[in-house]
Specification:
Elements: H1 6-22, E1 31-35, E2 47-57, E3 67-68, E4 75-76, E5 79-90, H2 94-110, E6 113-115, H3 116-120, E7 148-153, H4 158-168, E8 176-186
Parallel strand pairs: 1-2
Antiparallel strand pairs: 2-5, 3-4, 5-8, 6-7, 7-8
Length: 187
């Protein structure tokens, strides 16, 4: 089961996957970053951002058996969560923004499952995008070797996306797609 660092590892893995796939694409896609709310004041010039705006306890799961905690020895049930993400295309003109968004959606549809290898660290010969403000989640194994995370578009209506954007960003609205990363088991 994943550690509490799973939220960060999922978001960074999506950004890194897109950065890796962009090297093969016939477009200039720019930066790939995980943003928090405060980062939207500047945004990106050209690229894709991943923003975790909500985490929910998974309601569809039945109660899982309790396991002893390695730290305390006390029995505890895993916490099952879904992560709600807003993935945004950034560009200085509509045509480039549309192309980036279409490419991003196609790329994520081609990779609907994030394996433990993807979630735990960069593949061989892969350049890790380093953000000095945030330590790398790859310093530790966050997910067990048999774990995976499913990625799909989320069913969020347009009004909710626009409301969210208005609350987090002074920037004009950018083309954004809500995604759902599920089901993450946190031990």
């Amino acid at each position: 089961m994943a550690t509490f660092a799973a939220y960060d590892a999922v978001c960074r893995s999506i950004a890194d996957l897109l950065a890796l796939e962009a090297k093969k694409a016939p477009l200039t896609a720019g930066e790939f970053k995980v943003l928090c709310g405060a980062d939207f004041t500047e945004g990106l010039t050209v690229g894709v951002s991943v923003f975790l705006y909500r985490a929910t306890i998974t309601s569809s799961e039945t109660t899982l058996p309790r396991r002893p905690s390695p730290e305390t020895g006390l029995d505890k049930s895993p916490l099952m969560v879904d992560l709600h993400l807003l993935i945004t295309a950034w560009a200085q003109d509509a045509s480039t923004e549309h192309r980036i968004c279409g490419w991003m959606m196609r790329t994520l549809a081609d990779h609907p499952i994030l394996s433990a290898d993807t979630l735990n660290g960069p593949a061989p010969n892969r350049t890790r995008i380093v953000d000095p403000r945030h330590p790398s989640p790859y310093d530790e194994k966050v997910f067990g070797h048999d774990e995976k995370v499913e990625l799909s578009t989320d069913t969020v209506d347009t009004a909710e996306v626009l409301h969210l954007w208005k609350r987090i960003s002074p920037q004009p609205y950018r083309l954004s797609v809500p995604y759902l990363a599920r089901t993450i088991r946190i031990d």
